[in-house]
């Protein structure tokens, strides 16, 4: 068996494994510096993560669906119905309540819920707004004007002059804020 001559090596302690400059001084290097030096590109964020169905923006239908997720088990009330009607009007540009539309369903649910004693039997936000983006005959990107119209409708229909936290007005306002940053 051949024997190899080994040159004496210095112990591999932390000092010896850290990069040195041409004068032997130790310096710190981040992973980004190493990757840059090796020509490795930095991964771009996945465009499908934390986004709704639209590529870069939030639509009115998506904001309504967000309400279904945040307040799904809440029974539909008059102020919810008013906000849904305002949102549908802004999405479609139609000023009449469409038979079979989200607003008509929300108004019927609110009226029914006022007469229903059992909480289990009441129609919920989730019942009305699940798949709202697909059920709207037209949809558009939420603007601050759309959000203001929905907030106004919800406030006018509220005896306390308050919007529902996590409700339609809040979801529309959040969508409008997100769209302003794009």
TrEMBL record:
Domain of life: Eukaryota
Pfam families cross-referenced by the UniProt entry: SMP
Domain SMP, residue spans: 58-115, 123-181
Region span, Disordered: 1-48, 151-182
Keyword tags: Repeat
Keyword Transmembrane part of the UniProt annotation: no
InterPro entries (alphabetical): LEA_SMP, LEA_SMP_dom
Coiled coil: none
Biased composition (Basic and acidic residues): 10-23
Protein family (similarity comment): Belongs to the LEA type SMP family.
Protein name per its UniProtKB record: Late embryogenesis abundant protein 3
Organism (species): Camelina sativa
């Amino acid at each position: 068996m051949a024997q190899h001559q080994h040159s004496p090596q210095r112990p591999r302690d932390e000092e010896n494994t850290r990069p040195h400059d041409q004068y032997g001084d130790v310096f710190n290097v981040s992973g980004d510096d190493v990757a840059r030096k090796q020509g490795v590109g930095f991964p771009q964020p996945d465009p499908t993560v934390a986004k709704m169905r639209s590529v870069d923006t939030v639509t009115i239908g998506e904001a309504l669906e967000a309400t279904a997720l945040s307040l799904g088990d809440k029974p539909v009330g008059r102020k919810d119905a008013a906000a849904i009607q305002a949102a549908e009007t802004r999405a479609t540009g139609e000023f009449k309540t469409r038979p079979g539309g989200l607003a008509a369903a929300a108004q019927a649910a609110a009226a029914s819920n006022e007469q229903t004693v059992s909480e289990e039997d009441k129609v919920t936000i989730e019942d009305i707004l699940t798949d709202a983006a697909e059920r709207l005959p037209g949809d558009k990107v939420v603007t601050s004007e759309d959000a203001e119209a929905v907030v106004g409708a919800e406030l006018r229909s509220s005896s306390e002059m308050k919007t529902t936290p996590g409700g339609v007005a809040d979801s529309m306002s959040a969508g409008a804020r997100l769209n302003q940053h794009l």
